[in-house]
Amino acid sequence: MEAMRAHEVIGVDRGKLKSAPFQVLQVDLFHRDALDSVLDSAQPDALINCAALANLEECEEHPERARILNAEMPGKLAHACAQRKIRFIHLSTDAVFDGTKAGSYTEEDEPNPQGVYAQSKLDGERAVLKANPQAIVARVNFYGWSLTNKRSLGEFFVNNLSAEKSVSGFTDVIFCPMLVNHTARLLLETLEKNLSGLYHIVGAQPMSKYQFGLEIARKFGLKESLISPKSVEGSGLTAPRSHNLWLSIHKLSTDLEREIPNFSTGLDEFYTQHQQGYPQKIRGYQQYRAFVP
Questions:
Q1: pLDDT band at 290 (very low <50, low <70, confident <90, very high)
Q2: Domains and CATH numbers, the chain
Q3: Average pLDDT over residues 222-228
Q4: Taken in order 281, 287, 288, 290, is the CA torsion positive or negative?
Q5: Residue 105: exposure state from Cβ atoms within 10 A (0-12, 13-18, ≥19)
Q6: Who has the most CB within 10 Å: 95, 167, 239, 286?
């Protein structure tokens, strides 16, 4: 594959970032004129919407907030981008499926969301494609290093196992984890290829969350015995979870005309980032007095 051209990045943030290696616009998207002002100020060629209320329990407790952030806002962004002829990518989730299918879900399979989070994300998908049929809706499931060092499942296992704390790993939840850096590169490729519509952008290898934890432990030289196999049904989590979130990546691979990175490649990069101090570097971009609307 030919190398992609360099991209200028402009971030949109409520006030968490400081000293980021790119321009950051501090905007509260809840304000009425925020969408128009940020697009008119940045004048981007493309916009990738990562904003969401992604905590499943919080969505159950605050369904109205989930609806605004996960459903209404994406539709408004898609419409605003269509008016300005700005390419638009919206990040959705594998959780829109009920998990009862044997085998992998394709983009043609009918979603059946099981909770507030999943329903709001599905509503967001539909709002985006209705407002902007040329948009890309990407169902994702990624892990990586974050500002708080505790957002992803990868960080959860590394942090707890490094502290020699016992943790549980769900044996009955199958998913397709992808390193977030690979996710970002693939999103850019979909723009370069001028794709549109719905795509599954997840890892190439389905596995249980328990198996994922074991893979992390082995790569980082941590104790596998600290991970206990457990069913999600006995976890005490209140929001419903689907058991099978295995998504097919055949459409993505075909339209990009290349293979999707395998799990071990992503895990190797995740480990290398850790060894090179990447997590500390990322945390250095955080503004600790964050503005909350």
A1: very low
A2: 10-283 (3.40.50.720)
A3: 98
A4: negative
A5: buried
A6: 95
pTM: 0.92
The CA distance from 262 to 269, in Å, is 11
Q: Is 104 left (phi over 0), alpha (psi -120 to 50) or beta?
A: beta
Q: What are the two backbone dihedrals, phi and then psi, of residue 94, each rounded to the nearest 5 degrees? A: -75, -15
Under DSSP, is residue 44 helix (H, G, I), strand (E, B) or coil? coil
Distance CA(290)–CA(288), nearest Å, equals: 6
H/E run at residue 90: strand 87-93
The predicted structure's pLDDT at residue 291: 36
Q: Which residues pair with residue 12 across a beta bridge?
A: 25
The CA-atom distances, in angstroms, between 74 and each of 11, 184, 185, 236, 281 are 17, 19, 21, 31, 30
CA distances from 109 to 85, 130, 152, 207 (A): 30, 18, 27, 20
Q: Which positions ≥6 away from 83 have C-beta within 8 Å? A: none
Phi first, then psi: give them for residue 265, nearest 5 degrees. Answer: -65, -45
Show Cβ contacts of residue 48 under 8 Å, excluding neighbours closer than 6 positions.
89, 91, 187
CA distances from 223 to 159, 226, 293 (A): 12, 6, 42
DSSP state of 106: P
Q: How far apart are CA 140 and CA 215, in angstroms?
A: 20
- Tell me how far apart the alpha carbons of residues 18 and 10 are, in angstroms, rounded to a whole number: 13
